[in-house]
Amino acid sequence: MSRLVVVSNRVPVPEKGGIAPAGGLAVALKAALEERGGIWMGWSGNSSGAQEPEKLKEIQQGNITYALTDLTDTDVEEYYHGFANRVLWPICHYRLDLAEYGRKEMAGYFRVNRFFAHRLAPLIKPDDVIWVHDYHLIPLAAELRQMGLKNKIGFFLHIPWPPADVLFTMPVHEEIMRGLSHYDLVGFQTDHDLENFAGCLRREGIGDELGDGRFSSHGRTFKGGAYSIGIETAAFAEFARKSATHSMVRKARESIEGRSLIIGVDRLDYSKGLTQRIDAFEHFILTNPAQQGRVTYLQITPKSRSEVPEYEAMQRTVAEQAGRVNGALGSVDWVPIRYINRSVGRPILAGLYRLGKAGLVTPLRDGMNLVAKEYVAAQDPEDPGVLVLSRFAGAARQLKGALLVNPYDIEGTANALARALSMPLEERQERWKVMMDQLLEFDVSRWCRDFLTDLAP
Ligand code: ADQ
């Protein structure tokens, strides 16, 4: 079996002693790398200041080599904060209003991809299979091809792919599309994203759909497919089963004092629909006065990308909004919303999900959304909670037992919440089973296998 080379912006290097990195994606890719042997390459997360970064730092763990490079301050600013997070992220989440184009940032993005290619190429053997992840690294294959690499190279996009009218507002859309044509397989989260991609190729005659999942553009032929990422379902369910004894989970249970818990868990990001969600919760309480004092909404939201001004501003907005709702609706013995800005370990997270009578997952746009899947996997089969899920999350195309909502429709989301909290046990069990069966079959290992089989059968 060929060696596997994974490239992603950040690399979850195991801590000393080989402790497994958190998160399903890291676990699945690490398992695939262990099986075949290989390399995981990416940015170390560190800056070399104004100096050219030193050579790659290589860390050997079993038959996996983690290869990390620093980037200069300018690279971090232009490639990462600039083009990746202030152009590609908003565009792919349909937020044209937030995209900030700048020639300098675009040039930095392509330059850093070339730099990655130059650092990676000497490590590659002729029959290695290369799997590149996410929007930071779209031009990487083109750069590697330029250097003469003929290997199988696959790309997986973790975030949505927008329709042509949205993508084409980006001045370098054609270079981005050309970049994708240098892969042998381009994977998206859902068939919807794949259709959008095909639409972008058709428009302006950039390329053609050849049928059977094959495309041609920019003089190349390649495959495209939908591969919905899953979680480590069985392991996560096991965490949840064992969580009742965990002291923090026990404390959380005691502190809600028999109230129904509604839970939300999201990185702080404008794509996650947090302000609309808090509005919906407020509307739910105002229109269901019997629920006053009877529910607690726990929103766990670690900060992310605080260097980007929109994220900084959003942190203030969401905290103020939660404070305002608590001030308006709360009483001496009831705080309606608990808003927490920190990460929690996966076993505790699983336990908190299991306490939730409703999981509120209402992104305005999301590639997949693993929180929705984790919430389902963590439920007690005898007494499962109800997933209230945005129809604009990729996960909505798989989780048929969820109550689907339009997150822009505050009243509709509030109504779904009311329905979730009053749903009879039998219906909850039926809905949960449909979803859990799906999640067990299509877990993250299956996703990894399916992609790699299609890339290099
Ligand atoms: P994200 O936008 O980060 O991922 P998501 O899929 O929900 O979104 O994954 C978040 C992960 O972080 C989950 O595993 C969750 O448990 C964890 N997490 C969130 N808050 C946490 C907290 N407070 N403490 C601990 N863990 C926390 C991108 C795309 C998604 C796509 C994934 C994977 O935006 O659409 O599903 O990649 O492809």
Structural topology:
Layout: E1 4-10, H1 24-36, E2 38-47, E3 57-61, E4 64-71, H2 73-92, H3 103-120, E5 129-133, H4 140-146, E6 152-156, H5 164-167, H6 173-181, E7 185-188, H7 191-202, E8 207-211, E9 214-217, E10 220-226, H8 233-242, H9 247-256, E11 260-265, H10 274-287, E12 295-300, H11 309-329, E13 337-340, H12 346-355, E14 356-361, H13 370-377, E15 386-390, E16 403-405, H14 410-421, H15 425-441, H16 444-455
Parallel strand pairs: 1-2, 1-5, 2-4, 5-6, 6-7, 7-10, 11-12, 11-14, 12-13, 14-15, 15-16
Antiparallel strand pairs: 3-4, 8-9, 9-10
Helix pairs in contact: 1-16, 2-3, 3-4, 8-12, 9-12, 10-11, 10-14
The structure holds adenosine-5'-diphosphate-glucose (ADQ).
Low-confidence stretches: none
CATH evolutionary superfamily of the largest domain: Glycogen Phosphorylase B
| Class from helix and strand fractions | alpha/beta
Q: What's the count of strands?
A: 16
Helices, by number, come to 16
Bound molecules: adenosine-5'-diphosphate-glucose
Biggest sheet, in brief?
Answer: 10 strands, mixed
CATH domain class of the largest domain = Alpha Beta
Gross CATH architecture of the largest domain: 3-Layer(aba) Sandwich
- Alpha-carbon Rg, integer: 22 Å
